[in-house]
Amino acid sequence: MTKNENGGPVHNARNIRITRVCVVILLIICAVMLMRGPWLTAAFVRGIKAHDFLLSDKQYAFGVTIAIGYFCGSLALLMLIMMFRFLGRLSQGDVFTRQNVQTLHRISLCCIFAAGGCLLMGILSYWMFSALAAGILFMALIVRVVRDAFERAVSMKDELDYTI
């Protein structure tokens, strides 16, 4: 297997590049969805009027839906920006740093708050948002476990640096 300049496999750098490309694509999709928010929300509200949901026939359905949508969309945008920066640091070889631990913590918080928004939409409109909230919450837990592993590695690295 070939190695890159850092001594690691070329696959590591390739995986980070592919992930960064995917993050950029998701950033673009998220930004477009946020710009088209009123149009998407109007279409969604028209769709829920045909069903028996808490927001179905309420005049404030559009306002509630767009507020929650912008809240979750902003969190997604922020999370993707943090993820892009995190991957950039990884590609530069800055792996076990306090900044990466902090970034992973913030990403998990974005997930938790977005899960709350999705859960609220699941209660108010379509139950599938509750299923989405469960998936997002699970993702937050995974990010927290990775953050804890990074935090442990940082403390071990700091301890090793102090002993030399």
| Beta-strand percentage range | under 5%
> Secondary-structure element order, as H and E?
HHHHH
SS field, number of helical segments: 5
By secondary-structure content and strand pairing, the structural class works out as mainly alpha
Largest sheet: none
Overall mean confidence score, pLDDT: 90
Gross morphology is elongated
Query: What is the CA-atom radius of gyration, in angstroms?
Result: 20 Å
The strand count comes to 0
Protein model, in words:
The structure is a single chain. The mean pLDDT is 90. This protein is elongated. It is mostly helical and 164 residues long. It has one domain (10-163). Helix 1 (10-35) packs antiparallel against helix 3, helix 2 (37-48) crosses helix 3 (61-91) and helix 3 runs antiparallel to helix 4. The chain is built from five helices and no strands.
Tell me the layout of helices and strands:
Blueprint: H1 10-35, H2 37-48, H3 61-91, H4 98-124, H5 128-163
Helix pairs in contact: 1-3, 2-3, 3-4, 4-5
Question: Could you give a short description of this structure?
Answer:
The chain has 164 residues and is mainly α. 80% of the residues lie in helices and 0% in strands. Helix 1 (10-35) packs antiparallel against helix 3 (61-91).
